[in-house]
Structures are given as C-alpha cells and as structure tokens.
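May I ask for a sample protein chain and its fold as tokens?
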Amino acid sequence: MERPPNLAAAIDAAAEALVGVLDSAVSRHQMAVSPTQLRVLSLISSRPETNVNGLAELLDVVPSSASRLCDRLEATGLLRRVPDPRDRREVRLMPTAAAETLLRELQERRHRAVQAVLDRMPGRAQHELLLALVAFERAATAVASESPVDRARTA
C-alpha cells in the first residue's frame, strides 16, 4: 500500500489538534501551577529516583534552574526533598499526595476531553485510529532504539 503524499502533514495537523484538546482541558480549569511545573511533577512522579541533577538532564536545563523550579514546587506543597535511602548525601525529589491528586485530576480531565472528540468519530474510525496509533508507537520505539548509524543506513 502506497503512502499518501500528505501523511506526515496530516499526522502533524492531528498532533496539533490533540495538543489543543489536551491544553484546553487544562486551561479551562484554574491551575495553581505552570505548564513547566506540571511537567516537572509528571517527570518525578514517573521516575521515583530522580534527583535535581537528573531532573535538570530531563529538562535540558542547568541544575540551578531545576533547583529553583523545585523550590517553588516545594513552597506550594507539591514536592518534597527526601534523603536517598542508599546514599544519604543524595536527595530524591518526591511528589506529595497533593501533587499526585493534581496529576490524577489533570489526567482525568484530559481523558474526558479526548473522549469527547472520539465520541464524534464513527466506531470503525476509532478502531482504525487505535490500530494505527499502536503501530506508530511501535515504529517510533524501534527508531528510537536504533543507533544513529542504523538510522543513516535506512534513510
């Protein structure tokens, strides 16, 4: 089956639409934290052994910037710094219960917003979209796991 010439553009447009739906689910509710702070909370929630240096690497910022972000989150009661049980010189970043609740509520709002869009699509199109997204994720994972040399050979 031949690829439609505008497939990449269609995916880009769909991604922009999805980002718009997800952003509107957040912006319709008064958020006490910025998008960057939400990203930090999400990162540390999914990576329980993260320290400030690790967070800085994930965000591609200098450690002092990551530390200031953590200071603000700690001041709002959404982040705790705790000693690493393996090395007491290290400090782990831990989301508080309030942060976990905030992230869970945000995820629920985002899922409802996406479901509202899906409900406007025929069932068959939803099923085809699911299959396509699963295939896309697998292909993206395969590309990400290849070395730069392997990618150059297949280009």
